[in-house]
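Minutes, project huddle
Topic: does the predicted pose make sense with zinc ion bound?
PN asked that the exact inputs be recorded in the minutes so nobody has to dig through chat later. Recorded below.
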Amino acid sequence: MDTVQLLAAGEAALVRARQACEGAHALRHSSSWLVRYARALRSRTVRWIRGGADLREDGADAIRARLRRLIDDGTLPRAEPRPAWSCTSPGTGSCPACDLALTKGELECELTTATAAIILRFHPRCLRLYAGVVAERGNGHRATSLS
Ligand SMILES: [Zn+2]
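Predicted holo structure (tokens), as shared on screen:
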């Protein structure tokens, strides 16, 4: 192998090493995010919001009124709700907007507050109503992400 071939092989090895290094940095960043998220999940205090009127027979207006009260008293963030993900409900807990149970197998939307201290689960319709209430007030701001 002459000098030119050795230089070419070294250059190729250097490129592969840089790519591996970039991949390792991305993996480390991703792992760090997952660790922070897992800590937030582990240390969270589940605050299922209860009380108030029974909204079973009421419609969207009653849910919006409840959402306004919860936002005003600081129970729900004023920031635009940005769901982390949607999933099939395991059947535990209730939706803070309507105070009805999230039944097993039903679609639920989960969002984490900006401080990542509380995870809230909503019915998809209730989350849309929540976003509408925040938007109508015009003082919503984007929630910060965990990263
Ligand atoms: Zn609901």
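Observations noted during the meeting:
- DSSP finds three helices and three strands in the chain.
- Residues 1-43 form one domain.
No decisions taken; revisit at the next huddle.
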